[in-house]
Cell division protein FtsI (Penicillin-binding protein 3) (Saccharopolyspora phatthalungensis), 612 residues
Amino acid sequence: MARGATGIKGRTARTNVAGSNRRLLVGRLLLVLALVLTGGKLIQLQGFEATALSEQAQKQRLTKQPIPAERGSFVDRSGNVLAFSGEARQLYANPKLLTKEFDEEHAKDPSKPTAEQYKQEIARFIAQVLRGKITEQEVLDALFKDVAFTYFGPEIDPSQARLITEKYPQIGAEYRATREYPAGGLAANIIGAANWRMDEKKVQGQIGLEASLDSLLAGTDGTKVSDTAMGSDLVIPGTERELEPAVPGSDVELTIDSDLQFMLQRELADYAQQARAKSASAVVLDAKTGEVYALANDKTFDPRVSWTENTGNPAVTTPYEPGSVGKVITASGAIENGIVKPDTVLQVPGSIKVADRTVSDAWDHGTMPLTFTGVLGKSSNVGTLMVAQQLGEQRFYDLAQKFGIGQRTGIGLPGESAGSLPPRESWSGSTFANLPIGQGLSMTVLQMAGMYQAIANDGVRVPPRIIEAEIRPDGTRVQRPRPEGVRVVSPETAHTVKDMLRAVVQNVPQQRGTGPDAALPGYQISGKTGTAQQIDPACRCYSQSKYWITFAGIVPADNPRFVVGLMLDQPAYGTHEGSSAAPLFHNIAAFLTQRYQIPVSKEQAPVQILQP
């Protein structure tokens, strides 16, 4: 038994040795194979793929960032800056991470402050640096939020942000481009507003010229790259370099005069309030060039603060029926075609029937003699329609188009309305009872002023413009092309009508016009008052209590320099301010003559005979 057992043990031992040798051989072969493969891979990596892998690693370390382009500015005709770009910083933090890090430090070293104490310390410091902009409690509310990321506080000056982030690196400060409006609401309805867009990481125009000229103002962002530590957003010092430089946007020079714009906005708002008007608009044009020196609405907004209301520009977007201001079309056509002369005497009854419509004058009277100048000076609807019937529908329609009615001026302001002039083929018999007296058609205050600019400019209407030039980043000044003028009437007709319109502001016994409050001592003034009934939606007829009050004037009449257009929407009709815009014109004309040192007229306007 013992021998047999020993034999078995011997056999077993030999078998184990043989198996071990085989396993050792296989293991060696595998090791050699692994070494061969590894060597091959090293040769591949260090030889054939070394360049590609190096480039890939470099790319992983590279971080591309935009270089924001400086947005162009807006300046007025004298170079005063109305809007420009700046930069600010927006504070941010990771409240959860702050809590974790500070609590871990406190656990390791109890002498260090807890997360709560540290956040209170940060909040006190930020509130001191930004005194008046954010409270300590507001900072604490942000730092104790249960979120991984939060912005907090207002946009701040970069120097203030640097003080905070240098002392507390756990607080971040993100770049923000800003848009500054040093004059606040001055010309805001024209310029509009731009603000920071988080999704685009840049300032973009939202309304007004800021929006419509956004591509011109924005410029082109550049690109910079930097190396960052692997697995981190930390920039390796000294690795930042520029790939493409940013190209600044162009500046835009407007035709407006800031001082006049300020005065017009103030006077218009005050007058509208006195007249208890729903709204009001005004425009001042250069009589020769059509340049807009000022354009205002009684309600505006401040683009420096949050804005949601009064951001439109009714002076160019909201048409109305002009009333008797529109009689200049009939007057011009009648003189141009030799139908009447200024001193032609008309026997004007108290009313007139046109088709199925009976039209009366604003005051009760029997048949009375009025010169054609008197028809304008006293604003007789009946006398105007008598002459319009001789002028004829087609000639009236053609002339209204020449005056720009029913067409956009092309001024370049967003949302401009064309107003309306009913198509000739749609006229009924009674249509011509309304159009010659300024009802049944509509226009903006800009278009209305444009009609009188044509009369002031020897019969040539120059489409208004408000953008003078583009100033490119290299300083090149690119003048906007001046629009071609439109010959409306002959110079002789324009002079005649302009002189007739002096009767409107005349204040002579028995020869008094409808707008003597527009007169300005020392200057000849031409102008026209207007009162237009508004449509009452309840009856779909003209209201007897809601009106548009208008005035268009030329200063001075003997040597035109400016044209002023005014409109009041639904003033308290019957009150002094609510029944006429002539006093407002007087205030504006007085400012114009002083600011631009316009010489007084060489002689007083001769007395116009309205009623012989």
The chain has two domains: 78-250, 258-301+315-595.
